[in-house]
Amino acid sequence: MFKKQGFILILSLLLVLGLLPCSAFGSVKSTAKVKAPSALKGFSAYSSDKDNIYLHWQLRSEGDGVLIYRSSSASGTYKQIGKVRLSRGEFTDSRVEPGKTYYYKARPYKLYKGKMIKGKYTTVKKKQAFHDNPCVRETEYLTEGKMTCEPVFKLTLDEYSYDMELSLDRGEMTYSQSVRNGRAVEKRTALLELTGFSMDGVTWQKEGTVTVAAGETFYIRTYNPDGLEILKDAEKDWYFRCGYNGEDSVLELNPA
Q: What is the CB neighbour count within 10 angstroms for residue 14?
């Protein structure tokens, strides 16, 4: 008994002094199970234009990175299209076709001893490669170069847009143009009342609400009691409020 206790004491002393490796007692396996990260928090998708779809998640989600999956149908096959750090908080899918609808889901992962431990999937997010805000493809100033109280605009809504609703009752357009005066640049701004709407430039609707579909060309007649000359060489900017995809929005020539 005393010999056994003495032997244990000597081994303990050698371990403390570092003269005997722990491997002398055989390998010790960890039985602790690493917990997989939970699903991403706040996973969402939006498209500010027709060429990109943006995915976002909250940075307080668990994990080291995020795996992104995409499908062309809700119940179809999802293929991995991206792998990014969770700390980025976003992923841009630029390999989209304008107007097409895509379905996305994602899952976080954590790295442990060289292995990837994958977490739960998010719910599927559906998004169409459309403009999230109304967008014009072409703008023509029919009264350009003339001093008039009724400037007329010819606009074409981008084909990858939702329907736009325009109210002629108390509708207003804010118009700005920047002109060079010597070395200085002078910006002139005018408030124009929306007084007429036309699909052909001949027959005008003067009140109520009108709807413009994607790709359609339409005309807007405005009014300013002081008169306005739209200069040919000026840098132009304008915007007015409208309805878009069921929500309040703004149609503008040069969106930020």
A: 13
The CATH fold of domain 136-252: Elongation Factor Tu (Ef-tu); domain 3 (2.40.30)
54-92: pLDDT as tens digits? 999 999 999 999 999 999 999 999 999 999 999 999 999
107 pLDDT exceeds 90?
yes
pTM over 0.85: no
Residues contacting 39, CB < 8 A, separation 6+: 107, 108, 119, 120, 121, 122
Give the burial class of 36: count Cβ atoms within 10 A of its Cβ; 0-12 exposed, 13-18 middle, 19 or more buried. middle
Distances (CA, A) of 107 to 39, 77, 98, 185: 6, 16, 26, 52
Is residue 111 within 8 Å of residue 81, measured between CB atoms?
Answer: no
